[in-house]
Amino acid sequence: MARSTPPRQARRPLRSPCPLGGALDLLGDRWTLLVIRDLLFFDKHRFAEFLASPEGISTNILAERLERLEQCGLVERRRYLERPMREEYTLTARGQDLRPVLRELIRWGKRHVPGVAQRPPAGATVE
Amino acid sequence: MARSTPPRQARRPLRSPCPLGGALDLLGDRWTLLVIRDLLFFDKHRFAEFLASPEGISTNILAERLERLEQCGLVERRRYLERPMREEYTLTARGQDLRPVLRELIRWGKRHVPGVAQRPPAGATVE
Q1: Run of H or E including B4
Q2: Could you report the predicted ipTM of this complex, rounded to two decimals?
Q3: What does the H/E/C string look like for A27-49?
Q4: CA-based, 20 to 30 A from A33: which of A50, A95, B20, B119?
Q5: DSSP type of residue A80
Q6: How far is B90 from chain A, CA to nearest CA, in Å?
Q7: CB distance A18–B111 less than 8 Å?
């Protein structure tokens, strides 16, 4: 399906004027920030790469999240091959600006969630 | 219902060793961090106070989230009146340590979610 319109900010009704509420409207679930993590820290860009992450996201949830992230202007989708059709995803500046959020969540998780890894796995580009 | 056991860390199977995944297992939804916000920045401590927040959380979701936060050691519940029975919730150190996470999500929301407030409302104690 060809797309002629560029990604743009999806306008949804806000639950409240609170910027935290607004952020959670987009990001508040168990999966979205893991996809952002893969883009930011693991240099993943393709559907199958996100799918292969250890949390085991399902194809339908992943497709829905990527669609939403694109609509909200956090990721851009680019077709890099026509036959067979291949696409890849990259973070926009708005998506990259989530780095401090992820950093603080990772710091909190390391301190307070028993059993998680204290060091990034091989291949991660977390500073 | 009397509770004799203190709050303790609920052990759930982790989806992966990733500390971000572990944090999102507890916090990754649209409501949990709003309750933490109310405790951290709005000096709210009672069920009815959380319920009155502008996002309009439902009683069953609020009860479930408070229970989970207590089980995971992020909030403590204290009975401050026996008849009629009245309880209040306070953040533990583990819960208070979410302040930098909230700060970064608020910063991101202000920058990137159209229409949200740029200043804290009256009564907030956000620095």
Answers
A1: none
A2: 0.89
A3: HCCCCHHHHHHHHHHCCCCCHHH
A4: B119
A5: E
A6: 17
A7: no
Give Cα separations from A125 to A44, A81, A87, B75 (angstroms): 11, 27, 23, 34
Cα–Cα dist A42/A120, whole Å: 10
Pick from A71, A65, A63, A76: which is nearest to B24 by CA?
Answer: A65
B76-123 per-position pLDDT tens digit: 999 999 999 899 999 999 999 999 999 999 999 999 999 999 999 988
| Whole-structure pTM value | 0.90
- For B55, the closest of A15, A94, A111 (CB atoms) is A15
What is the share, in percent, of chain A residues with pLDDT greater than 90?
83
Answer CATH for A22-112 from 1.10.10.10, 3.40.50.300, 2.102.10.10, 3.40.30.10: 1.10.10.10
Q: Where are the domains of chain B?
A: 23-111
User: In residues, how long is chain B?
Assistant: 127
Structure tokens at B37: 């916000």
Task: Tell me which chain A residues have a C-beta less than 8 angstroms from the C-beta of B112.
Answer: 23, 94, 97
In this structure, which topology does domain B23-111 adopt according to CATH? Arc Repressor Mutant, subunit A (1.10.10)
The CA distances from residue B32 to A21, A35, A78, in Å, are 11, 20, 34
Nearest to A98 by CA among A13, A30, A32, A16: A32
